Amino acid sequence: MPKNSVEKIMDNEVIDKVVTSIRNGDESPSPRESSPVHPSICKEAPFSDDPDALLERDFCDYNTKITLKMARSGKAPRRVRVYADGIYDLFHQGHARQLMQAKNIFPNVYLIVGVCNDELTHEKKGRTVMTDLERYEAVRHCRYVDEVVRDAPWELDEEYLAAHKIDFVAHDDIPYSSDDADDVYAMIKAKGMFVATQRTEGVSTSDIVARIVKDYDIYVRRNLARGYSAKELNVSFLNEKKFRIQNKLDDLKDKGKRVMENIEEKRMDMISKWEEKSRDFIDAFLLLFGREGRLSTIWNESKGRLMQALSPPASPKRAGSPDGSCGSNDDDHTSPPPKKAGRYEFSQPSHYLSDDYSDDEESNLHSK
Q: What are the start and end residues of every segment in region (Disordered) (predicted)?
């Protein structure tokens, strides 16, 4: 028996067990988690025409209608098939959060995501950054998605809902207008099949495109630096040269900044080392130049010797003077020379008179 046939039989057996357990009211894991049909989130979601998706659709008993109350209570007899659609250009966290809400809006949800092709999108909304093939692949690798429908329609009708066995449609509740209708989900809302999700504020594909357009020069220079040619970026020859010069100037600025940072690091390192050794420097300075330092001592000693050398010798003291010594020898002290007499002055008589010299004679001498 071929391998594919064996796998299909095993899949059917697992599905039968799951159906039986659900009908008996037993809580059991979903087929995606318990069977090879939906092995795990480690595998990308299948397209709507892949065997896994077709098998899941054939397994669904669409004659059993699931109401909103039944779906919310978690007592639905089968998996609830929820459909979400969009463009999903530049797939971002806002898209992922919307799909996460749709996946968890009810217990046991099988999430189908429809993605519009390029032709329809460019006609209805405008040019996209990513191609339809890239957008398909981006969505099918989101962990919350169970199935991807390519070439999804802009507006849903009864035939499309029945073909994919859709129970509910998830989208934000802001009216989404088109050329033909004020709200493309009006019919879905009227049928009671619409469930609302919340938009993620602050992020959208239009915002991302606006950022790129705003900083166009920066991104062109970035890609030129990464090896893209001017032709690939649709840049003229002059603009290419301008952008390349700007890139070189930026490189020089970065190098200069790094050099200054290195200099600053070395300066801070030197300051740190100086602070560590500053106390040693201060102690050595004070030891050499302080008030009681070596240089001060040397200066004081030299000053004393110099003053002693320049000062004249002291005058000798007379014998019998108050400060003189009584018993000093004649050799030690020299008497001052006698006072010179004037030219016409007579010499004074000697003070050393004899004992028999009378007072009358002395008076006579003075009278002369």
A: 308-368
Which residue type, as a one-letter code, is found at position 277? Answer: K
DSSP secondary structure code for residue 331 in this structure? T
Topology given in CATH for the domain delimited by 51-197 = Rossmann fold (3.40.50)
Place of tokens 């809902």: 161
* Structural tokens at position 15: 């599905």
Q: Which of 185, 142, 140, 130 is nearest to 161 (CA)?
A: 185
Please say whether the beta carbons of 110 and 79 come within 8 A.
yes
Radius of gyration of the chain (CA): 58
pLDDT at 51: 95
Q: What is the rounded CA–CA span in Å between residue 105 and residue 171?
A: 11
Residues 275 and 252: their CA atoms lie apart, in Å, by 34
Residues of the chain with CATH 3.40.50.620: 51-197
Per-residue pLDDT tens digits for 160-217: 999 999 999 999 998 888 777 788 999 999 999 999 999 998 899 999 999 988 988 8
Question: How far is 197 from 174, CA to CA, in rounded Å?
Answer: 10
Which token pair is 218? 């920066």
| Residue 273 phi, psi (nearest 5) | -65, -40
- Give residue 48's pLDDT: 95
Task: Give the DSSP per-residue string, 48-80.
Answer: TTSHHHHHHHHH--TTS---HHHHHHT--SS-E
Q: Give the Cα separation of 18 and 12 in Å (integer).
A: 10
**How far is CA 148 from each of CA 49, 53, 134, 141, rounded to the nearest angstrom?**
9, 9, 13, 10
Distance CA 102, CA 85 (A): 11
Burial profile 192-216: b = 16 or more Cβ within 10 angstroms, e = fewer: ebbbebeebeeebbeeeeeeeeeee
Q: What CA–CA distance (Å, rounded) separates 106 from 62?
A: 17
Q: Where are the beta strands (DSSP E) in the chain?
A: 80-86, 109-115, 147-150, 168-172, 194-197
Per-residue tokens: 221: 């220079």
CA distance 108 to 90: 29
> What is the greatest pairwise CA distance in the chain?
186
**What DSSP character marks residue 47?**
B
